[in-house]
Amino acid sequence: MQLPEPQGVSDPNLLQILIDINLWEAxxxxxxxxxxxxxxxxxxxxxxxxxxxxxxQSLKLLNGRMTDRAxxxxxxxxxxxxxVEVIDNEYDARTKRVVPTDKFITRLNHHLxxxxxxxxxxxxxVRKMQK
Length: 131
Description:
4 helices, Arc Repressor Mutant, subunit A, 50% helix, mainly alpha, 9% strand
C-alpha cells in the first residue's frame, strides 16, 4: 500500500498566526489554560456580540461542550479572577446570569489587539462594509 503524498500547508501565514496566538494564550491567565475555560471565555465573549440589549447570559446557556460541573467550576474560577459576576436573573428567578466585568472586557480587547497585530504583520486587512 502506497501512502499519499504529503501536501504542503495551504496558508503558512495563517498557520503562523494561529501558532503565535496559541503560544500567547498558553502563557496568559488561567481562564485560557483548559479547554473548558477557553470555551467558556469565548462563549461569554460571544454574548457581547449577540446580546444587543446588554442582558447578561443565563448560566444554563453557557454549557456548550462542557458538563454542568465543569461549567460551574470554570465560572467560579472566572469569578475569583474578577472576570465575571454571577447575579440573579431578573427575568427568571430560577436562574442566575453571568456578567463579564470591565476586567474581562479589557483582557478580551487585549486579546483582539494582539490577534489584529499578528494579522497586520502578514496580511493587508481591509474591513468589509456590512449591509
